[in-house]
Amino acid sequence: MILWSWIETLDETSSAWFRVLRRLLGAQTGPDPNDAMAMGRTFYTCRPRWTVQRNTVQFDDAALTGFVRSSSYWRATPRADDGLEAEVGAFMQEFGGADGTAPIQFREVALMGRP
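Request: output the structure for the sequence above.
Response:
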């Protein structure tokens, strides 16, 4: 089984968060979803089966900050950390709800098959 998850930019909040990620992490936020699915098909030659699920996850500012810091593309420096805090704060100011969270949509794909 191969699992893949990426942000769905189908709504304004998720699109805005994706733009923040690009500013913070650069263009290297992973392959395009269609590229990821095509790569998965090369591993399984016997008619792989896809399962696609869309989920919305509520993130507060600490969870968004942790989300960025958990990326293998994140390079922590005092200046980068300050920029991260500022970006997340600005994002939450604009897109956060009364409960202090923002909904981010994800598409999660599981590919099951045999080589």
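The beta strands are 2-7, 49-59, 102-112.
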